[in-house]
Amino acid sequence: MESKVAVFWFRRDLRLEDNVGLQYALSAGVPVLPVFVFDTDILNLLDDRCDRRVDYICQALGVMHLTLQQHQSSLHTYHGTPVEVFKKITQIYAVHAVYCNRDYEPQAIKRDQAVGAYLQENNIGFYDFKDQVIFDQSEILKNDGSPYTVFTPYASKWKATLTTEHQASLPASFDNFYKTKIKEIHSLAAIGFEKTDVVFQQPNLDLTIIGDYDKHRNFPAHNHTTRLGSALRFGTISIRRCVAFARRHNETWLSELIWREFFMQILYHFPRVVNSCFKTRYNSIVWRNDEAEFQRWCEGRTGYPIVDAGMRQLNETGFMHNRVRMIVASFLCKHLLIDWRWGEAYFAQKLMDYELSSNNGNWQWAAGCGCDAAPYFRIFNPTIQTQKFDKDLQYIKTWNPDYQQRLAAPIVSHEMARERALKAYRDALH
């Protein structure tokens, strides 16, 4: 057996700097073996072998691997289920303890419980830390000890609780990584995936975008969003760095970062939202769930130019502007009366920055059934949304250039669809 090590298990924190759990591991007094597991329980659920997210992860790991090599260390990657992988690791190394950063999704919590149980059986410590959020679990609660379910008071408490220490970056240290010859890390092909059009770049906080984020964020043609969703999702940038920057430069972007944590704590405290409406009465809605109409929505063939532009942008790039996400989600749930879970699942397949808590929270918001959701009778009119946010049709012309040839046959009329949706919701709720 090789010498004693502490294992640091990378998951949603694919960076070497400002990484809480990694710094604790490096301070443990034994060399740190940096590990990433290509979890087959997750990968086997992905139908598309050209998944941009897997490619992004591989490229981010490659960057870390090169840096570690400069410090006579190496990233160790594995392909399998986490428990199987840790059984292998503990057969090769004398593992002192395993360190990682916390995750809050129900399946991730089960995974960590299973790994923790195996390690405990073998007298190996398992330590997790808060890293991907400023406040987690039960740090921001109402005065009566219950979780917030409305954003505005949550955000007020969040801001009132924030101190300089909460947003302070941790210094990077490379002194205590396990020294080893260079190891090969898994390629995309080795885990059964194919190259995509993704080119990983180190995430950047761009003042020219964030400084006036509030002025441009609703206009999809402006291309004036941070594009940091994937970096936050996979932890290639630190939330502490983002919050400190937002506090200095733009309150609106800070609010978006707080929304992210709000939805994470909703998922943590109410895991039933994965498959159920937060407002349980809304589970009684009778959805039409027309499969042909759903397919037209997926392909961007609804006859509503801004809806179709959004879906084409998503399908071609793995990204959709946030204002347009709201429009297409409202359209699916209200105009077509298709279950929000269908749309949520489609976004989960396609979005580069897919995150369960935010995706679920925003879809339930659009459908009117979530916590702090838009009221059910708020039904976006795609034509008015276009006039407000894409009046020169720049966004539509970019992603839906043949829109004029297809204007004659919208999938449904707004007026009829609105009345139909209002009736379906009223019937379910009253």
TrEMBL record:
Keyword Ubl conjugation tagged: no
Named cofactor requirement(s): (6R)-5,10-methylene-5,6,7,8-tetrahydrofolate; FAD
Positions that bind FAD: 213, 253, 256-263
Gene Ontology process terms (BP): nucleobase-containing compound metabolic process; response to light stimulus; response to stress
Electron transfer via tryptophanyl radical (site feature) positions: 287, 340, 363
Keyword RNA-binding: no
Family to which this protein belongs: Belongs to the DNA photolyase family.
Protein name, as recorded: Deoxyribodipyrimidine photo-lyase
Organism name: Parapedobacter pyrenivorans
